[in-house]
């Protein structure tokens, strides 16, 4: 049925500055967002940094640092894409990818940052020289002895005190490293990378606290995997990332949760689900499901009622 009148001419046309309209609307939205964030914003838990961890847990910090030095830490024995370890290898796919971002934790995490402070600290400079000059077997004896000593150590005014023993230069190295961590300068030393043109690379800074620090911290907020931590907030009393419920749910499936390659399986299932949705328009039968469900008729019920009324008039005439 063709319209008999030009509906456009029934309206009075007035000039309009759309650019002014756009920026005015943007300003109002920004103002509302800022006001809502002030009134209802979720307080954030301070991030876990190397400096805060070194000051709050000096003994544990030295233990983490020593494991990086002796090759027993989480990243030291992680495996691809960082090194040839096997501690965190989930699947053949991970092994096949190979070492893309090589990390030597003893050198990259401990000795290189300490070497940057050696010019200002003669004690550290001498300790590094002694450690480097020792045969690997001697270094391992020192590391094993100091590892045991740290289990009996205690903290006095931010300094780790251990029983007397034959540890070589390790007490000086670890004390210097702890001081570096407590000062906040270790973060910058780990980020600095002369092999990158920008001279900054966040990889080592992000990996340094992998292991006990990052695994134990979520437990203080009931945010571990067994608590479905991904949908819990860092501050109690506020809603978490509820939209992550489905990915978290996949991790609770027994064949995923108990698999060595849990992450690979969860990501693969998520990808297959996305792929299924992406090809839905081309799946015979399935692509006609919306037509059979009739949801579109419910959404556009006013339009369909008017169409049916017009069709009835035409049939009657």
Written overview of the protein:
This protein is mostly helical and 317 residues long. It has three domains: 50-215, no CATH class; 222-278, no CATH class; 281-316. Helix content is 56%, strand content 2%. It is built from 17 helices and two strands. It has helices at residues 18-40, 50-56, 58-70, 92-97, 105-117, 122-133, 136-151, 170-183, 185-191, 203-207, 212-216, 245-252, 254-257, 262-278, 289-293, 295-299, 301-316; strands spanning 154-156, 159-161. It has a two-stranded antiparallel ribbon with strand order 1-2. β1 (154-156) and β2 form a beta hairpin. α3 crosses α5. The longest helix has 23 residues, at 18-40. The mean pLDDT is 84.
